[in-house]
């Protein structure tokens, strides 16, 4: 193994690819629209703040988990536990943070472009839609699996 966290990074990349494939296959043949009900600007009023708030909440929990776990293990004087056993789940938590930040940035940039080009039918493409969905759900799934993995690693 190249480094202790490789299974966590591999899991995160594999989950992202799997989620992207699922979203891509489910969205085939359906039009990609930003605004619900065809009302221009409606997504930004109702849904964008909600998506960003949920993502910020998950990112806060993930970052707090990393800080708490690494900090508590550094104060462990007995040396009974090393960070190596937690490397993979910590990398998975870190990848959930990366996916979440990318989700927030790209969703906002894509929506801003859509707002400024309302008559362009290609202002929000299927690729952008599936990428944004995959980043958002990837962040959430990586976060949930990393917590289960952390619990398993901590109870060994």
Structure overview:
The chain is mostly helical and 156 residues long. The protein has one domain (6-28, 42-154). The chain is built from four helices and no strands. The protein has helices at 6-27, 42-74, 87-116, 126-154. Helix 1 (6-27) packs parallel to helix 3, helix 1 (6-27) runs antiparallel to helix 4 (126-154) and helix 2 packs antiparallel against helix 3. The two termini are 21 Å apart.
> Averaged pLDDT, please?
89
Cα-atom radius of gyration: 19 Å
Would you identify the regions where 5 or more consecutive residues have pLDDT less than 50? Answer: none
Helix content: over 70%
Strand content: under 5%
The number of E-state strands comes to 0
Task: Tell the overall outline.
Answer: elongated
Structural class: mainly alpha
Largest sheet: none
Assembly context of the chains: single chain
* Annotation field: number of helices: 4
Distance between the termini: 21 Å
Sequence of secondary-structure elements: HHHH
**Count of discrete domains:** 1
What labels describe this entry?
single chain, 4 helices, about 0% strand, elongated
List strands and helices in order, with pairings.
Blueprint: H1 6-27, H2 42-74, H3 87-116, H4 126-154
Quick summary of this structure?
The protein is mainly α and 156 residues long. The protein has helices at 6-27, 42-74, 87-116, 126-154. Helix 1 runs antiparallel to helix 4 (126-154) and helix 3 (87-116) runs antiparallel to helix 4 (126-154).
